[in-house]
Amino acid sequence: DYAFNIANPPLTVKAVAESAMREIVGQSQIQKILTADRKLIEPASQQLMQKVLDDYHAGVLVLQVLLLSVDPPQQVIAAFRDVTAAQQDLQRLGNEAEAYANRVVPEARGAAARILQEAEAYREQTVAEARGQAARFEKVYEQYRNAPTLTRQRLYIETMERVLGGADKVILDDPSKGGASVAPFVPLPAFPAFQGGRK
User: Fold this and answer.
1) In Å, how far from its chain's centre is CA 114?
2) pTM of the model
3) Per-residue DSSP letters for 6-25?
4) What three-state secondary structure class fits 184?
5) Percent of all residues in the chain with a pLDDT value above 90, rounded to a whole number
6) Distance (Å) of CA 191 to CA 119, 187, 198, 199
7) pLDDT computed for residue 26 by the predictor
8) DSSP code of 106?
9) Residue-level pLDDT at 3
10) Angle at Cα 55 formed by Cα 49 and Cα 60, nearest 5°?
């Protein structure tokens, strides 16, 4: 068949090889052709070439297809390099972002856990203080029910001690009993103690 069914076998094989290669490469992405898919294109091209040559009854057996050099066309090689550099930058930035997230997310989770613990401690402290104040109020109320007048006087005196404790001394007199309502307290100078009537 080789000698009789095709006019120029070497030229026919070359044309079939170019056609098969264009078809296979046209269905693939250039980035994959230049890298991982290169080894897949070789056997696919071999099978397609063999099928076409068998249809021509060329009597040619395609043993192997090898891609010796796979480069983008010269007209677009600069743009291809730019795209490759941009993809590498994208990959690098993605890796940096992932590293940042791996560092920041645990820190943020730790800070959130600390804030929750502080809030829980504050809540427990506030509740304990409120319960303590309520318990004190209950005790005062119990005393008030037993002796209202005495409890009122005691609370009044305790309040006055707190309010006027740091102030200059003031004497309050009951004006209903004929006394002045407010009289300043003037302390007398301290005298030395007498022993046996003499100093």
Assistant:
1) 15
2) 0.40
3) -S-HHHHHHHHHHHHHHHHH
4) strand
5) 28
6) 59, 12, 13, 11
7) 83
8) H
9) 57
10) 55
62 near 49, Cβ under 8 Å? yes
For CA atoms 59, 45, 11, 53, the dihedral sign is positive
CB-count exposure of residue 33 (10 Å: 0-12, 13-18, 19+):
middle
87 contacts: CB under 8 Å, gap ≥ 6: 31
pLDDT value of position 199: 46
- Ordered by start, the domain boundaries in the chain are 1-70, 72-164
- Residue at token pair 């319960």: 131
User: Residue ranges of the chain with pLDDT lower than 70?
Assistant: 1-5, 167-199
44-47: long-range contacts at Cβ-Cβ below 8 A with a sequence spacing of 24 or more?
45/17, 45/20, 45/21
In terms of residues, how long is the chain? 199
